[in-house]
Write a structure and sequence with these properties.
CATH class: Mainly Alpha
Membrane topology: Multi-pass membrane protein
Oligomer: single chain
Shape: globular
Number of domains: 1
Low-confidence stretches: none
CATH architecture: Up-down Bundle
Family: Belongs to the MIP/aquaporin (TC 1.A.8) family.
Pfam families: MIP
GO cellular component, one term: plasma membrane
Main location: membrane
Distance between the termini: 35 Å
């Protein structure tokens, strides 16, 4: 499991560093919302082909939960993935803070109400995070499952994450990934930390819903 742990740690670190880094170091004035969206998506594409052969490149506790619920990994293995992902996210956020001129004041944290980029409230944020995560894991489980287009999995998953960000950055900053939200929030503290619960609970609910569609065979190809 050492290789999988290391791969998930590095992969999640890269996702946070590139994705949140684009928001903090590039910003809306320079790379814009589209640039930030592609930073998250392309980070996934890169890691999917870089560490995918080692760990499957979950780099997201919600994805690991979905894979577990779909019957494709054990609970013990999921736990190892979760630890690696949360540690990796914190390291990625620390690297951004060390580079950013504002230090650890802003690290691309997620939020709702006043902390939402577009001023969206709790209800809107919860609906978006649940639905977007469910869609995300449906793509992941579909493209990596039996009969899926595995050679193109990285592109499919990365582009899905990109469009999720294009739609949702103004709503919550987009989480769909408890680790991605955890890393910045624990370092920024304050409101980001107090709102972190939503970006843990909602993605996990969305992941469970998406996974159960596969577990119940509702999304299984007919023979």
């Amino acid at each position: 499991m050492t290789g999988k742990f290391t791969a998930e740690l590095i992969g999640t670190m890269v996702l946070v560093f590139f994705g949140c880094g684009a928001a903090v170091l590039g910003g809306f004035d320079h790379v814009g919302q589209l640039g930030i969206a592609f930073a998250f998506g392309l980070a996934i594409v890169a890691m999917a082909y870089g560490i995918g052969p080692v760990s499957g490149c979950h780099v997201n506790p919600a994805v690991s939960l979905a894979v577990f619920l779909a019957g494709r990994m054990s609970a013990k293995e999921m736990g190892v993935y979760w630890v690696a992902q949360f540690i990796g996210a914190v390291i990625g956020a620390v690297l951004i803070g060390l580079i950013a001129q504002t230090g650890f004041a802003s690290l691309g944290q997620n939020g709702y109400d006043a902390a939402s980029p577009g001023g969206y409230g709790l209800a809107a944020g919860a609906v978006f995070e649940v639905v977007a995560t469910a869609i995300f894991v449906i793509v992941i489980l579909g493209v990596t499952g039996a009969g899926g287009q595995a050679p193109f999995a990285g592109l499919a998953i990365g582009l899905t994450l990109t469009v999720i960000h294009i739609v949702g950055i103004q709503v919550t900053g987009v989480s769909v990934n408890p680790a991605r939200s955890f890393g910045p929030a624990v370092l920024v503290g304050g409101e980001a930390l107090s709102q972190l619960w939503l970006f843990i609970v909602a993605p996990l609910i969305g992941a469970a819903l998406g996974a159960l569609l596969f577990r119940s065979r509702l999304l299984e190809a007919e023979q």
